[in-house]
Please model this.
Amino acid sequence: MEGTSNTKITVTTTINEQVQNVWDKYTKANHIIHWNFASDDWHCPKAENDVRVGGKLNWRMEAKDGSFGFDFEAIYNEVIEHEKITYTLEDGRQATTTFENNKDNTIITIVFDAENENPVEMQQQGWQAILNNFKKYAERITNMEQLHFQITINALVKKVYKTMLDEKTYREWTAEFNPTSHYKGTWEKGSKILFIGLDKEGNQEGMVSKIRENIANAYVSIEHLGLLKGEEEVTSGTLVEPWAGMHENYTFKEINGATLLEVDIDSNKEFKSYFEETWPKALNKLKLMCESK
Model:
């Protein structure tokens, strides 16, 4: 992205969601990593975004096969919440994004200075593809909702945390979801973990996930990346769109020698009733295990 040009390029899309929600998904780093790429063979492994005048936008885009990647950095010149952001790239080019509130829709328009290295048409297509990917992500996430479950367990936090995560005892309490439930991997922050079970035909299936955070005896955050089908890890395409980016968080709080365990999960409408039925059963099983040992 070296060299500047007098040519300005415009890309636009309409998001079927209100502007305040669109703004959050467009500007928050935990959302940016899920949409900031033009095609499924690319991804955005990290992003940082300080949305204020003088703040820095920094993200990395890479081919999933590791063959190529680049960093993007810019400084904000103007920020009007829910309306407009303008930033300047390292090479001096500028880009302005506007958010037009149109009742239940939001029109996003980006006007940016072209660079001299690549054809204008290619640049327009690339930025438009990323914006289209954002539209798809933003409208899909709209159909999610967060479910909350909690239980008080008459055992110390340390014991509840250990019982919930240890491989052997994990199999016991998660059997309420699937009798063959288990995991492969570790609970270390940043590590990949596979949550696995067998379907009715005896085929292996499950979730491909990573541990976003693990604070011992306090908090665990899981991010689901895709699906496990047999031995294949599927992390892109329409099959995984309803799941990719969903979070599952466990919070452990000590209260008078007992443990308040809170579970917050993202769910789509299709699985809401299933989770509302099975999570309380699983937590009750965990409670019995912790209190009887």
User: Anything to note?
Assistant: The helical segments are 19-27, 29-35, 120-142, 157-165, 167-173, 269-292. The first strand starts at residue 8 and ends at 15.
